[in-house]
Structure formats: structure tokens, C-alpha cells
Amino acid sequence: MKAKVDAADLGSVQRWSILVGAAVMLSLAMGMRQSFGLFQPSIIRDIGITTADFSLATALQNVVWGITQPVVGALADRYGARWVMVTGVLVYAAGLVTMVFATSALTFTLGAGLCIGLALSCTASSMTMTVTSRTVSMAKRSVAMGAISAAGSLGLVLASPLAQTLISTAGWQMALVGFLGLAAVMLPAAFCAGKADDIAINKADDTDLSLREVIASALGHSGFVVMALAFFVCGLQLVFITTHLPNYLAICGLDASLGATALATIGLFNVIGSYAFGWLGGRYPKQILLGGIYVLRSLALATYFYFPATPASTIVFAAVLGTLWLGVVPLVNGLVAQLFGLRYMATLTGIAFLSHQTGSFLGAWGGGLIYDRLGSYDRAWQAAVLIGLIAGTCQMLMNVRPPRARDAVPVALPKAA
Fold first, then answer.
1. Which end of the chain has less Cβ packing within 10 Å, N or C?
2. Alpha carbon separation from 321 to 29, 215, 356, 368 (Å, rounded)
3. pTM of the entire structure?
């Protein structure tokens, strides 16, 4: 067996190859996934499915992603992240191919729902944050996760204009073929990020507890449970927007390209927000920052949907929401590492992410169902605002004390600036 090396002994080229690989993989995986809402009007028209059918496929994607994430995380913790991520890229490509040839709601759901959902559990935030955490020192961990999350959002800036341009000029099938080209770039990125498997976990971040014992400790920790439940609301709000904003703008009679512009704006401002919250998370209480994000998102949703949509208000809304978009990623992962260490980080963040994706399911499918039944998104955004305010308040009051001494993982907390 190949001997593992300490993170401190990595050369700069080795460290940067891992971090860049993680950023590229996260960027493209999330960028394509968050652009699927742009395909909704064309696919509904050409395949003959309903808004609820499209929403159900997106909802299933989130459920599959959430259900498989703890299992995928456990496999990565036990056997290494490299082959988990490589397999995920191949499944992603298979899902895109299935979508290209979809002729019914069933085949579309198989590709966009089942395959893409499974692929995301292998290639998105949980896996990339895990390899990032192993690659840098504890003092730089929060800002590094923020930086990777920020770089990861650039995929939306690339994918959404690419999709909209190809949909307008060559059709939605060719836009998905363009996405296959992006998936091909993810493959070498997965191999590079997988080099983190060769890095040893330092003693401060390790534990002698078994996987079963750590999971039991986490599920019995009130702070972890509150964080996971609040993460439910995060998923509901974000996927509601990415799935239904393009359709909402079309209903308002605004140009179809505005949806792509809004999503690209979210991606651009997410670069700023993710890095900023990663930096702030190394200096201020993560639970306060995390709860603040949920509250501010809810206020932004309430303000935007209360007034008639215009191109200007949509871009401002996208910029505000983008700043608050994936800033949660370094904070949630940082809290897990702070409480339980790195040994089973992928598993524990996967469990929290299951809650997030349950919310995503409700945000995607429930939003479409409410619109089909009531002819308006009003009740959907009102519900998202209400539970967001509740979740944000509870998150701020989260218990951040590590588990009891006999169960705790010894973790040195970063000093406040």
C-alpha cells in the first residue's frame, strides 16, 4: 500500500492540482445542473410533458442525490474519493445522453433525475469539500473551502449562456451535446482531485471511533440535528429558484434570455459570496453567519416576488441571491469538521445533505405542483420565505459544543481574529 503524506509536506504543484481539480469538477457539475431550468420550455413543448413532469424529474434528481450522498460519502471515507468521483463523471455523461434521446417523461426522468442525481453525489460539494479539507491546514481550511466553492460557481457563468445560446440557435438537444463536452473536462479534474486520497489525516482531525459510533454521536448532537434541518430550507429555496425562475419570467412576459442572464449573475456573485463567507467563517461564529444567510435570502425572496418582475429587479435579485448562494457550503462543512473532525467528514456532510435534498425535492416538485393547481407561484414563494426565517433563527442558536468528552473527536478550534 502506498504510504500517505502529510498535507504540510505537499509541494505547491501537488496541492494546487488537487484544489484546481476539485474546483473544476464542482464548477462544471453544478453549472450544468443549475442550468437545466433553461431547458424547461423547449422540452415541455417538444416532448409533450407538463411543468409538473419536468419538476418531478428535477425533484427526483435531488432526492437521489440526497439519498445516495451518505452512502457515497461512506464509500469515499473507506476506499478513497478518486474512483468515486471518476465514476460520478461517467454517470453524469450517461444521464446527459439519456436526456438527449428522451421522448417521454419516463426517459427524461431516468436521465435528468436518476443518473444526474447519482452523479452529483459523486462530483459536487460534499466530495470536493472533503478533498479540499484534507489538502490544506486547519488554519486555512475555511477560506480554502470558500475559495473552491467560489470557483465552483463559475460553471454557472459558463453553462447557462452556453445552454441558452445553443437552445436558441440549434435546439435543446445540441445544448445537451455541448454539456457532454463540459462533462469530458470533468474527467481529468476528478483524477487530479482524487490525489487527496494520498494525504494522511493529522491527529487533531482524526478519531478512533468507528463509522457507526460517529454517526450515532452526530445524530444525537442537537447542534448537528438543527443544522441538518435548517439545511432542508436551504435546498428548498435554491432549487425552487433554479427550477422555476425561467418559467416565472416567461409568465411575466419577459425575454427568455433574461433567465440565462439571471442564472449567470447568480453564478458570478456567488464567487464573491462563497469566498467572503469562507473567509468570515475562519474568524466569526459559523452558525451565526449561516443563519444570517437563510434570513437574508428569505427577505430577498419576499421583496422580489412581492413586486412586479422587471429586467432590472431580476438582475438585482440575482446578484443579491448569488452573494448568498453557496456561501453555506464552507460554513456547513466547517461546522462538521469543527464538531467531528475529518475522518468521516464525507459521510456526515452527506447525512446533512440528505436533509438539504429533501428540501430541494419539495422546492422543485412542490413549486411546479402549486403552479399547476393554483396558476400562480405566490403560495410557493410565501412558504419559502416563512420557513426560511424560522430556519435562520434556529440556526443562529445552534449548539456548537463538540460531543461529550468520551465521544468527541479532538479538534483544535481556530482562533478568532
1. N
2. 20, 33, 17, 21
3. 0.76
